[in-house]
Design brief:
The complex is a heterotrimer of chains A (428), B (457) and C (77).
Chain A lengths: L5 E3 L2 E3 L3 E3 L8 H10 L3 E7 L10 E6 L2 E8 L8 H14 L4 E6 L5 H13 L4 E5 L13 H4 L2 H14 L4 E4 L7 H10 L4 E4 L3 E3 L2 E2 L6 E2 L9 E4 L4 H12 L8 E4 L5 H9 L2 E6 L1 H6 L4 H15 L27 E5 L9 H9 L4 E5 L5 E5 L9 H5 L6 E5 L9 H9 L3 H7 L1
Helix pairs in contact in A: 1-2, 3-5, 5-6, 8-10
Chain B lengths: L13 H4 L9 H10 L7 H5 L6 H10 L2 H11 L3 H7 L6 H4 L11 H14 L14 E5 L3 H12 L3 E5 L8 H4 L8 H12 L4 E3 L10 H7 L2 E4 L19 E3 H10 L10 E5 L3 H12 L4 E5 L11 H9 L3 E3 L2 E8 L5 E14 L5 E5 L5 E4 L2 E4 L7 H6 L4 E2 L2 E2 L13 E3 L14 H26 L1
Parallel strand pairs in B: 1-2, 1-4, 2-3, 4-16, 5-13, 6-7, 6-13, 7-8
Antiparallel strand pairs in B: 9-10, 10-11, 10-12, 14-15
Helix pairs in contact in B: 2-4, 4-5, 4-8, 5-8, 6-8, 9-11, 9-17, 13-14, 14-15
Chain C lengths: L2 H17 L3 E8 L2 E10 L2 E9 L2 H18 L4
Antiparallel strand pairs in C: 1-2, 2-3
Classes of the chains: A alpha/beta (428), B alpha/beta (457), C alpha+beta (77).
Chain lengths: 428, 457, 77
């Protein structure tokens, strides 16, 4: 069986699955249950000045009858006194010395306040700190969370203050509610962060009740934006992790967060550069026991690939992620329909006909049997038909031999510069 | 999927008729169905499974693409889980307990279980590793579901296990007694192989009393598991039972799984006596062997019939006729000694007897003749009483007496599980129950012997 | 006319000019595509041709040829 242990910036855990700082890590009781179920670590629900929550805190977005495709919350950080949390962290760590406990922290952007909380949580034996610069609601109005996480200078300064006091590794948790996450990630690195984690939740409104005209959720008839997470946000999170992982200036480990629900998601995040992952929504939907398959599936995957340690896969796909301008314009794929598998729903035809390049013909063979065929010369290889196809194996995207050797957009523009008037002029 | 309608019966290619009738789920079906599971906490399906398979977990693993993990979750709790996926009365067990019965429709747990175990069979997976040897030896007599299950658990606990199996192959009822079109032999043999891979020795063609004596076993092993199941069908005790064309249902089914299929039944008229699951199996086998007409005769009514509902439905789809309140009185042969007719008598039900079932009584003068070529007896099974007695075990009409907590017999070194303890108020005759009893005997043995492990270590 | 047909026609024109010894001297890309100027000096003196390429595949094609010509001309350093 493959070794699932990870070491993220010096924080060790028996497997890469940590519970993210969120409702599941609110108390010692919960975190201990999670460790019993098999979770490798937990980022304690954010510690800070205890807040007051509303009732009606969560809402979910379903998709075509499936519940919780996305999840929205307006719950804030811990509402319990620091002393109580610290006592429970201490007890939990004592019971589970080999599991990672990371304290998530959020205080005002004030050096002394950061120093004070860092000292107090480190005294009870946490393995690391995670600075919550991402919470998008409630705390932001008070100048904390996302409000400070959206300003690179504040990220850098606060990270520096924490590093002045911290003895354990410091992870900076970043908000996705920003144009370019690599900017704040670099600020965190410049501030001395040992690692970064992403993404926190995305500003969201789950819905509007079309009968009552209330927001979903609403608090006594009023709503406020929440933070979006769950399976729906995974592609956004994965991109942000990948952008940071491939940025040469961001050379610290990444803890991946965002829509991770099963072992495959974890593999994807780790291939894209995450040194470990954090999970919340999936546990809230199904309970802590889901980690059993996450561990088992990951372990079987690694065994099948002949990989002895999960750490070996970290970042293996990063070099395959680049800018659009570096993609080969001469690479060609086309759709091919396997008529013996096709169930003739014609969804590919209409998708192509109405919304792509009109290259799937509806034909009738000599026996009067209807069939679909791709005119490969006209197919631009967009994948749409295979995306809408409901039947496994009915449409394959086939690689064609290249007519021309590889050439990227950047290479094309460079060579054409020599043939263009304006650029010739500029060169003179 | 091809279930639902009567199978096409080919008279040219009988083997085809014995192909598994129900096709497995396609990957797309398995994906959709597994994603429909709610992943309940403290799930009622787990409670309803005699072996306690963590059903939501194995289904989640199908959904996540962890098929090896899924198969392991199934087989961990049930060493004959691949067979049970096909033969369990799921609507009475896991699927009957599914919470979705109250909202939409239950998850097809049996089919998903088959999907995961079929994957493991196809991909030649080895799911378990033997425990570190603890120096103790256990003999398991009988390589059927109970014996295999017990041997598997004991091997995981580090015991050196030897199975003594009278037949050519292990697997018991799953290998020989359940019709191929419901349970292909290769499924059962894969389960046997999984147990063998743990270092369990299986001595086949080895009969107690003939090839090895009970005393020898009792002397050479630290514990013994008696899991010999049941024997052949008893005599009807009517005239003509020795005529050519009278068969024992168990042997009849076994022949369809071990020999080339006989063409002797094509166009024949068959009467099956009894209405348990074996009777149904014999009837549907007859149909698949090309019999023109197959009747099941039962002296009570559909109400008292012991066959599962789905078996009954299956037989009806095969055009098997059911004659209730009908008992055989005499088998009449022709001049060559072949079955020619069956004399029957109509019955009526009296007051409920001690077992709660209403007893049948013949209606005087209601005799009638059925034109038949074949009579198959399926009125239950006899016991290996001699074998039980050769071990000196207490029993009641061949049902070995055990402590239902420990499965210990009157000889504290001998434990018993499966059909050998079924009856007389003890347990149920399902494969899945036998598997669970096998596991429990293993744990009971470990409980009894673990102190001696510490001493030897 | 199908998109591929438009491309094949433009490609044919490009190939024909290259075949006749023309070389690209100037490229102007604008909202309507690419104007590619070809020249050759032969017996008849300086000849000039302009192709107005509209299809994406043709614009990719001629530039790909230029790119690989240049790559082959540039000695490995």
């Amino acid at each position: 069986m493959a070794d699932l242990r990870i070491n993220l910036a010096g924080i060790e855990s028996p497997n890469p699955y940590w519970l993210a700082s969120a409702p599941p890590t609110n108390s010692g009781y919960q975190v201990q249950r999670a460790f019993e179920a098999g979770w490798g670590g937990a980022v304690w629900k954010t510690l800070g000045e205890p807040i007051i929550n509303t009732t009606a805190r969560f809402a979910a977005v379903g998709f075509n009858g499936k519940k919780v495709a996305g999840f929205n919350n307006i719950e804030l950080i811990t509402d319990r006194p620091l002393e109580v949390n610290l006592k429970e962290i201490y007890e939990t760590k004592k019971r589970f010395p080999n599991h990672a406990i990371i304290a998530s922290l959020m205080v005002e952007p004030n050096r002394e306040k950061w120093h004070e909380i860092v000292k107090r949580v480190e005294d009870v034996g946490v393995d690391g700190l995670e600075l919550n610069f991402g919470c998008p609601h409630g705390m932001a109005e008070r100048g904390m969370g996302a409000a400070s996480g959206q300003q690179p200078d504040l990220v850098e300064a606060q990270t520096m203050w924490v590093k002045e006091a911290a003895k354990t590794p410091v992870i900076v948790k970043l908000t996705p509610n920003i144009t370019d996450i690599t900017v704040t990630a670099r600020a965190a690195v410049q501030g001395g962060a040992d690692a970064i984690s992403m993404i926190n939740t995305i500003n969201s409104l789950a819905g509007v009740d079309i009968d009552t005209w209330n927001t979903i959720p609403h608090v006594a008839g009023k709503g406020a934006h929440g933070g979006y997470c769950g399976p729906a946000v995974k592609p956004i999170a994965l991109n942000m992790v990948a952008e940071c992982a491939r940025n040469p200036h961001i050379n610290v480990p990444i803890s991946g967060i965002g829509g991770i629900s099963a072992w495959r998601d974890a593999v994807e995040f780790m291939l894209m550069g995450a040194g470990g992952v954090q999970v919340c929504t999936a546990a809230m939907h199904h309970g802590f026991s889901i980690v059993e398959d996450m561990i088992d599936g990951l372990s079987n995957y690694l065994d099948e690939k002949g990989i002895s340690s999960v750490q070996e896969i970290i970042g293996k796909s990063v070099e395959r992620y680049s800018d659009w301008g570096n993609l080969d314009l001469n690479y060609r794929i086309v759709a091919r329909i396997n008529n013996d598998v096709c169930i003739n729903c014609n969804k590919c035809h209409i998708a192509c006909e109405d919304t792509s390049h009109q290259c799937i013909d509806m034909l009738t063979d000599p026996n009067g049997q209807k069939y679909l065929e791709v005119r490969e010369d006209d197919c631009v290889g967009c994948n749409l038909c295979s995306i809408v196809c409901p039947e496994d194996g009915a449409i394959d995207m086939i690689e064609l031999p290249q007519e021309q050797p590889p050439m990227t957009w950047n290479e094309r523009q460079a060579v054409l510069a020599g043939y263009k008037d304006n650029e010739r002029e500029a060169a003179k | 999927m091809s279930n639902g309608n009567r199978a096409f019966i080919s008279l040219q290619d009988l083997q085809r008729n014995f192909d598994e009738v129900k096709s497995g789920l396609t990957p797309a079906e398995a994906r959709d169905e597994s994603n429909r599971c709610l992943y309940c906490y403290d799930a009622p399906c787990i409670q309803a499974c005699p072996t306690g398979i963590n059903i939501p977990s194995f289904i989640k693993k199908i959904a996540s693409g962890n098929l090896k993990g899924s198969a392991r979750t199934i087989m961990e709790s049930n060493p004959v889980g691949a067979s049970c996926a096909r033969v369990c009365p799921t609507e009475e067990l896991c699927e009957g307990a599914c919470v979705l019965n109250d909202s939409t429709k239950p998850i097809m747990i049996g089919d998903l279980q088959r999907y995961a175990t079929d994957w493991a069979i196809k991909n030649e997976q080895t799911l378990f590793k033997a425990g570190e040897k603890n120096g103790l030896k256990v003999a398991v007599i009988g390589g059927g579901p109970a014996g295999l299950s017990s041997a598997r658990e004991l091997a995981l606990l580090g015991y050196e296990v030897t199975i003594f199996e009278a037949k050519e192959k292990a697997g018991g009822l799953n290998t020989y007694g359940i019709v191929s079109f419901r349970l292909p032999q290769k499924v059962s043999l894969w389960e046997v192989q999984q147990v063998e891979k743990l270092g369990v020795k299986i001595k086949t063609n080895t009969m107690i009393g003939r090839d090895i004596q009970p005393e020898e076993i009792l002397a050479n092993y630290d514990a013994v598991v008696l899991a010999v199941g049941m024997s052949k069908v008893p005599m009807l005790r009517i005239d003509g039972e020795d005529l050519v064309g009278v068969h024992d249902a168990i042997q009849f089914v076994e022949e369809t799984k071990t020999k080339e299929l006989s063409e002797a039944y094509i166009g024949k008229r068959v009467a099956v006596i009894g209405a348990g699951n074996t009777a149904i199996d014999a009837a549907t086998c007859s149909v698949r062997l090309g019999a023109e007409n197959v009747k099941i005769l039962y002296r009570r009514t559909q109400e008292e019939m012991t066959a599962y509902d789905f078996e009954f439905e299956f037989a009806k789809q095969d055009n098997v006729e059911f004659r209730w309140l009908t008992a055989p009185k005499r088998i009449i042969g022709d001049e060559k000694g072949h079955v020619k007719q069956l004399e029957c008598i109509r019955m009526q039900l009296g007051e409920p007897g001690a077992d709660g079932r209403r007893g049948p009584a013949p209606i005087e003068g209601s005799e009638f003749l059925l034109e038949v070529d074949v009579v198959i007896k399926a009125i239950g099974q006899t016991r290996f009483t001699d074998l039980i007695e050769s071990f000196g075990l207490e029993h009641q009409w061949g049902t070995v007496k055990v402590n239902l907590e420990t499965y210990q017999t009157s000889n504290e070194k001998v434990f018993a599980a499966g059909d050998v303890i079924f009856g007389d108020g003890q347990g149920e005759a399902m494969v899945v129950t036998a598997a669970q009893q096998g596991k429990k005997t293993a744990y009971a043995i470990h409980q009894a012997l673990k102190n001696s492990i510490i001493e030897t270590a | 006319m199908s998109a591929s047909q438009e491309y094949f026609e433009e490609k044919e024109k490009i190939d024909f000019l290259f075949y006749r010894g023309f070389r690209v001297t100037r490229v102007t890309e604008n909202l309507d595509g690419a104007a590619v100027e070809f020249e050759r000096t032969g017996a008849a003196g300086q000849e000039k041709e302009v192709l107005h390429l509209q299809t994406a595949d043709a614009r990719k094609y001629f530039s790909s040829i230029l790119f690989h010509q240049q790559r082959n001309l540039t000695p490995a350093e």
